[in-house]
Amino acid sequence: MPSHDVLIIGAGLAGQRAALAAAQAGASVSIVSKVHPVRSHSVAAAGGINAALNPEDSWESHAFDTVKGSDYLGDQDAIEIMCREAPDELLWLEHAGVTFHRDGTGHLGTRAFGGASAARTYYVADITGHALLHVLYEQLMKHHATVDRYEEWFTTDLLQDDDGRCVGAICRNLRDGRMEVFNAKSTILASGGAGQAYEPTTNGLIVTGDGMAQAFRIGAKLMDMEMVQYHPTCLAGNGILITEGARGEGAWLLNANGERFMERYAPNKLELASRDVVSRAEQTEINEGRGFPDGTVALDVTKVPRRRTLEALREIVNIGRDFAGVDITREPIHIRPGNHYMMGGVKTDSDGRTTVPGLYAAGEVACVSVHGGNRLGANSLLDTLIFGRRAGQHAARRAGETTMPATPTSRVADVERSIAAIIGREPGGRRLGAIKRELGATMNQHVAVFRDGDGLAKAHEVVRRLKEQAPNAAIDDRGSVFNQDVIAAIELGYLLDVAEAIVVAAQERKESRGAQFRTDFPQRNDAEWLKHIDISVNGAEAPRVSYSPVTITRWQPEERTY
Ligand SMILES: Cc1cc2nc3c(=O)[nH]c(=O)nc-3n(C[C@H](O)[C@H](O)[C@H](O)COP(=O)(O)OP(=O)(O)OC[C@H]3O[C@@H](n4cnc5c(N)ncnc54)[C@H](O)[C@@H]3O)c2cc1C
Are strands 297-300 and 333-342 parallel, antiparallel or unpaired? Predict the structure, then answer.
């Protein structure tokens, strides 16, 4: 049985940063990932990472922009930590080998991102996540003596002892189907978001909410789950992302009449208002008949000098050509808002501690909450690194003060039985893919940019029905080697749990704030709703709702305009 001070589930940016920090603090570490670490979804991050590094900028300005971007739902103590620690983290990355863009004078170059009052986004062309992930992996290799990597291992469940402490996890080796208990003094979830609960989404097929559901099932609270980000510039149909870096470099948004419509919605910031504002503006143009017949508006990248586009936005030139047949350096491309990011997740403090002792969370799976109602572009990579590092350090410290727990190995037999039951399902149930597609379409219809009570009630009904169907969904592969059918069946269960938490929280919040716009409650209502919604398990019933206060340090809520 693998036994370590710190077990980390997930090897994207949050997980690898946590592993490095824990190893540097002297802990023995195991890091588990269902895909090879450099295929983790962080690899898709394009536009960059924020830090107030320029002497004319300040961490206070970055923090205020983040608080305002969050529509005042972000916890300001955590936001202060993230923005204060950002410059050192960026320099650490640079020194570790990330080849950030430099300007003509040799200084680190920046681009503007939405909702920011200064250009403070540092980038590597439009492959920033790729660059960061590879450098961290390289760094992890240095610690091979104390960090054991379990690549292509799938965590099915978290383990608790009789006192309710998390003491590790059960994992399946995807190569041969072998189950194993991982014993640990501290466990860190770094398993990413849940974009696959929606269709389309910018998120890859592996982003299935596993950690959120696993933590929820053992009693950890989820927070801000109603806050689901729709990114303003996604390709129609397939949802592929065109990075905000395009607007940061000067691209315009146009409706079908050729109007630069953001002048009406955000006269100061225009295309670089925060994402919730831009997505709503686009959807309003489309709903009111000023979009194109394919339900889109246009992104005009021709405003950016062609040479600059080819240098700094190469990937989206390729995406335009390969996935839409458009040369974006010569003509506008049709885009619309699409599912992108979970602001909510497993509730943690600023050291990554969840409400379950021994269990930590960091990155997109977690909710610290630094993004509140709406995340600013390029603040997520920062969140993964700052809070990944802090969780790694704290988890290592805790491990130093704890003896190795006795792990309830009998749970493996339960999980093995449940997997055998999946493999043994009678043919003839509904296909997994059909259930997942209905879930994604329902969420995209009713729990998207605009929501209302009736639509949310319909969505809840569908999710409950799909939860009943999922345990009988048919699978084809009955083998043990890389059985992706079994994994997809387990992941579908996670997605349904996460989707229900999103819907229940969205039903509960009877106001409009950040990414949650209720057409039946169109105003922000600080008197009643300046609070977090926490979601916890409630047996077979719909999840239980409770509230927790928003931490305000120095920025009182104000009207939010851009
Ligand atoms: C297209 C795109 C572009 C983006 N661009 C930017 C940007 O420019 N700037 C920015 O700040 N943010 C950006 N984001 C957001 C940002 O990339 C993500 O929020 C962030 O990278 C998430 O990192 P993570 O470490 O939390 O999770 P991930 O990178 O998703 O890693 C999750 C890890 O968990 C593992 N895992 C999951 N479930 C299991 C399981 N059951 N068992 C074992 N392992 C498991 C996976 O294998 C993986 O290793 C972008 C997002 C997308 C989709």
Answer: antiparallel
Residues 6+ apart with CB under 8 A from 240: 202, 234, 319, 323
Beta strands in 54-174 (DSSP E): 110-111, 121-122, 147-151, 153-160, 166-173
Given a cut of 90, whether residue 540 has pLDDT beyond it is: no
If you search the block for the tokens 């189950």, which residue do you land on? 179
Which of 98, 210, 229, 380 has the most ligand 1 atoms within 8 A of CB, as the residue to mutate? 380
- Which entry of 275, 390, 451, 513 is annotated as an active-site residue? 275
> What is the SS3 string spanning 172-214?
EECCCCCEEEEEEEEEEECCCCCHHHCCCECCCCCCCCHHHHH
Q: Where are the beta strands (DSSP E) in 318-477?
A: 333-342, 345-347, 359-361, 366-367, 450-451
- Taking CA atoms only, the protein residue closest to ligand 1 atom 23 is 42
Tokens of 433: 């893919």
What pTM was estimated for this model as a whole?
0.97
Distance between the two ends of the chain, CA-based, in angstroms? 55
Please report which confidence band the pLDDT of residue 96 belongs to, taking 50, 70 and 90 as the band edges.
very high
Contact predicate 252/271, CB 8 Å: yes
The closest alpha carbon to 377, from 100, 13, 55, 66, belongs to 66
Is 390 an annotated catalytic residue?
no
Amino acid code (one letter) for 427: P
